[in-house]
Amino acid sequence: MKNILILYATNWGVTKQCAEMLEKQLNQRYTVTVMDIQKERPALSEYDVVILGSNIRMGKINRAMKKLLQEEAEYLSSVPTAVYLCLGYPRQFEEYAELELPKKLTCSLGVHCFGGELKPEKLRGIDKWIVKMVRNSIRTQDFEESDTDHHQLPEILPENIVLLADKIKSLN
What we know:
The protein is of the alpha/beta class. It folds into two domains: 3-117 and 155-169, Rossmann fold (3-Layer(aba) Sandwich), CATH 3.40.50; 119-153. It has helices at residues 14-26, 63-71, 73-76, 93-100, 125-140, 158-169, and strands spanning 3-9, 31-36, 49-57, 60-61, 81-86, 111-113. It is globular and about 50 Å long.
């Protein structure tokens, strides 16, 4: 039985929610450990598969996660590894992945976009104000009819979580 680590970093809970959704897809077949890197940093060598998740905030991956990715890139490239990013605008996923992930990191299980949410009720302070502004902007903008994906607010993409789970299950 494979021992899987899902290590995440989150600001407002979306990346954690995605980690828990992925865990539910895997925990019947594997031993799955879910951890917040901002609370503890586990020994990666104790796991057969490593899944790393981070939010994107202000165009950047969480600092603690970025540090781990840089320091452990060589090791992570030698074991089955995946990275997932949570962001409100999937169109920018490839750009953020290219800019924020270390060039020397190779993820054999890929880099995935799990979407994101703009829910101001989960936020405080300036973040709450910014999210309200962005949501109002999305709702009131006059988009081209062919640009239908801009008419909807960002949301988690459960189908992408299932795709990663299936990829992990195919390792057997």
